[in-house]
Hints:
28% of the residues lie in helices and 19% in strands. It is globular. A hairpin with a 7-residue loop joins strand 2 (15-18) and strand 3. Bound molecules: ligand MGD (2 copies), iron/sulfur cluster and molybdenum atom.
Amino acid sequence: MIHTACPLDCFDACSVVCDRDNPAKLVASSLVPYTNGVLCSHLYSHIHKEERIKEPMIDGKVVSMSEALDRVAKALSGKPWLLWRGSGNLGLMQQVTNLLAKESGGTLTHGSLCDGAGNAGIVEGRGVNRLLPIEQIKSSEVVVVWGRNITVTNSHLMPYLDGKDIVVIDPVETKIAKEASLHIQIKPRSDFYLAILLSRFIIMEDAENREWLEQHASEWEDFYDFTRSFRIKAILEHIGLSLNDIGDLLIKLESKRVVFLVGAGVQRFEIGDSTLRAIDALAAILGLFGKVGCGVSYLSNSRLGFKNPFEFNCKTEPIATSKFSKFSSVLIQGGNPAESMPCSLEVEKELNGVENLIYFGLYKNRSSELANIIIPANNFLEKDDIRVSYGHEYMQRMNKAYDSSFGISEYEFTQEILKRLNKEPTESEEYYINFWKEQARVVDEKLISPLFEERPYSSGFGVDGDDEFEFIDDFYDDFEDIKALRRFRKKLKYQSEDMWLLTPKSTKNLNSQFAKDSNTVCIPRIIGFVDGDRVVVKSIWGEIELIVKVVTDLREDCVLIYHGTKGVNILTSPVSSSEGDSACYGDVKVKLTKV
Ligand SMILES: Nc1nc2c(c(=O)[nH]1)N[C@H]1C(S)=C(S)[C@@H](COP(=O)(O)OP(=O)(O)OC[C@H]3O[C@@H](n4cnc5c(=O)[nH]c(N)nc54)[C@H](O)[C@@H]3O)O[C@H]1N2
Ligand SMILES: Nc1nc2c(c(=O)[nH]1)N[C@H]1C(S)=C(S)[C@@H](COP(=O)(O)OP(=O)(O)OC[C@H]3O[C@@H](n4cnc5c(=O)[nH]c(N)nc54)[C@H](O)[C@@H]3O)O[C@H]1N2
Ligand code: SF4
Ligand SMILES: [Mo]
């Protein structure tokens, strides 16, 4: 049996085994207990359905791997170049290519397309973004699913929610919302205000956990003053909720053991860092940190406590707003910026301004179409690696199952290019894998993240647990200030009848991969279109044509296009979050017109 792990960008990081004689038949392993005997269809698509790129190419002509690598080496020497790495494979060895940037003056990226705004907010308050172990979620009584679509993006968590009192805060009546005892169908981008109001009411009712606060978050009274700087009536109007909604939520939160399962959905906005900080502050007021069956779960920092052998002091470019045309060469690895970055028309213009656009990946996509140099990559079964997870504590060795007859691994690629640049070769592959592995703790013969804590923050905050929780004390939102609001609307040319655009994850796609033929826009009944109508969806950044599907689970001011739908990011905004340099896919409104 060969042990490996699913490499895909997903909370669950499932544990996998395959047979040496039939390596393509993948089976769930019990190494990670949460995998629970089930692998999902994405992994099947990754290995069996999606057509692989098999041939290296230069300017549309098939060449040998050696010729293609010669050309890459030439492109990466002398002139400014950028390494833009996506999250197609979460193996830690993906980063070995950073050595190329170090050795030949390349630029790396910083920031995030994903969870960066929320992560920045968490770090400001707690010092470090630790995992809330699934065991604590299992021990809770009330689960608040806050902008996270568990059944779609994190399905292996579902069995642990059995029998819990579920509350959902989401503009969409998701599958889990349909089963919840309370669903607050919140207006997009207003979670910050909701969290602030809830904190204020809890303190007004003397329901705060004063003992815990005095010990771990002593500035809580200043935070109370901060919450009082927001006018209750105006905020309720702004976020479209009533005092009854707030009352219903308060009853749930004042229970004994509460966890918040917060997703990336709440923070895909310019103010996303403040939103996570406000949600964390609410949890602090309730004293939820460090207790059995309580806490805030978000996409955790999977590399917390690890020394990274591939971290170098190179120049960086923001990943969400990279100005590609500044560089003569761009190496795209494990990602699809042409479709996954916001504001695709601008991105495409930028990518077209690059002399040597190198695509190093598994499948064809818009980025590979634009590239003039193509390098076929090995998939996870064809190389050695090791991975950690943002959803659980286990580290997993990913053992190679078979040799590829056409591709190249990131490690071999790096070796080959360094050789061509007359640079020192890297350490051996096993050296790096062991470098990661040896930092893990071994518990019951399993590898666990070095700083894993069963009850995170039980002794306090910061890396060593001797800091206090720091409350948010400052907030600015263009949407708050009426004059600024007018300016903002003018800047973005928002109009009252415009609808919020939601672009959540779908069961059929893993980000831009797999189901690429979707052409649907989901709309609430009130707009007056019918199923099958062809419409132009237009934002100030661009427009696309789609087919209408009328649904009943959306707020009346929202339309929904699944992430992965062709062209969806033509509509999204190039603004990045005020902290964390994260993409803000949620900060956009659209108008629909019938074709
Ligand atoms: N099947 C599948 N699974 C995946 C992925 C995939 O593409 N497909 N992608 C993986 C990746 S990269 C990530 S980052 C994770 C993300 O995992 P999630 O955070 O669960 O995913 P999202 O779909 O981005 O957003 C979750 C929910 O937020 C809601 N939402 C949108 N705007 C708001 C808002 O303003 N407030 C509130 N309260 N809710 C809002 C959406 O309606 C959606 O239901 O999933 C991972 N898992
Ligand atoms: N509108 C909208 N846009 C979004 C989001 C959203 O919610 N809405 N979500 C954002 C989020 S959370 C994320 S994480 C990003 C993800 O965006 P990207 O990081 O661009 O990821 P993918 O779109 O999944 O593309 C992954 C590519 O990696 C390649 N690949 C897979 N495995 C390997 C490998 O082992 N080696 C190499 N070299 N290549 C490999 C495949 O060819 C695949 O095409 O998208 C973001 N874009
Ligand atoms: S649930 Fe996630 S980790 Fe598990 S097999 Fe599917 S994509 Fe991979
Ligand atoms: Mo993501």
